[in-house]
Amino acid sequence: YIRDAFVEDPIKQFGRYWDKKIEIDLVAKTTSGKIIAGNCKYITSKLKKNELNKVKEDSNTIDLKVDIYVLFSKNGFSNELKSQKSDTLKLLRTLPKNKFFNYMMNR
Hints:
By secondary structure, this protein is of the alpha/beta class. Helices cover 24% and strands 32% of the residues. Strands 1-2-3-4-5 form a five-stranded mixed sheet, covered by helices on one side.
C-alpha cells in the first residue's frame, strides 16, 4: 500500500525504528535517496496534528533527516492536519483487514 503512494520515486528499502523511548512505524528510502518516516494509528478518532509533531520530534531525536512524512489513519485526519498535506506530508487511510487482504491478493 505504501509503495503505491510512491510510484514516481519508488521505495527501495523500508523497515521501522524503535528503542526504549522512541518508535517510528515506518522508515524508508526511495530510489532517489529520499528518507521517509511515518506512523500508523488504528484509532477510532481522526488523527490530529500532534501525531505529525511526534514523528517529527522522534526523527529529530535520532538524527534522522526526513524528506517526507507519512501518516496512516483508520478514521481519517483532522482539518488542521489535512491543511498541511503537501509533497513532504502524505496522509493515507488504512484499509480494513478484509479490504487489505483482497487488495493484496489482487495485486
